[in-house]
């Protein structure tokens, strides 16, 4: 995932797509950035059920002393083998619903965002 993304799905769409019993009222967001609160779908105490929670975007490795979020993304080809990610990749997964994301291209010496809709 890149550094900015969009979540414009309605609570009803999220509930239907992910099989959620309850989804809080959410407003469409078109510029979600690292360290902001984001809606995630994660297992509940009953592993057969999922819930929606608001969590701060950024990985806090299990060995972190300060609890501050660090990396915001990882490469699929290395995530299982790197110490920073391997424990979380194996044991602490969640789903980040997204309606789109941005990639930045340099045009005329300036970075210009390009939105990709999902």
TrEMBL record:
State the Gene Ontology terms under molecular function: lyase activity; peptidase activity; single-stranded DNA binding
Which organism encodes this protein? Frigoriglobus tundricola
Its Enzyme Commission number(s) read 3.4.-.-
Q: Which GO BP terms, alphabetically?
A: protein-DNA covalent cross-linking repair; proteolysis
Family the entry assigns: Belongs to the SOS response-associated peptidase family.
Q: Name one Pfam family in it.
A: SRAP
Assigned keywords, A-Z: Covalent protein-DNA linkage, DNA damage, DNA-binding, Hydrolase, Lyase, Protease
EC top class named in words: hydrolase
**What is the protein name given in its UniProt record?**
Abasic site processing protein
The cross-references to InterPro entries, in alphabetical order and at most eight, read:
SRAP, SRAP-like
């Amino acid at each position: 995932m890149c550094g900015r993304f969009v979540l414009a799905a309605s609570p009803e769409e999220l509930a239907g797509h992910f099989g959620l019993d309850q989804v809080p009222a959410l407003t469409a967001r078109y510029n979600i950035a690292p360290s902001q609160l984001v809606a995630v779908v994660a297992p509940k105490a009953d592993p057969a059920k999922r819930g929606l929670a608001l969590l701060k975007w950024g990985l806090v490795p299990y060995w972190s002393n300060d609890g501050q979020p660090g990396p915001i993304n990882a490469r699929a080809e290395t995530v299982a083998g790197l110490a920073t990610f391997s424990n979380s990749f194996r044991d602490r997964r969640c789903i980040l619903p997204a309606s789109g994301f941005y990639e930045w291209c340099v045009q005329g010496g300036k970075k210009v965002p390009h939105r990709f809709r999902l």
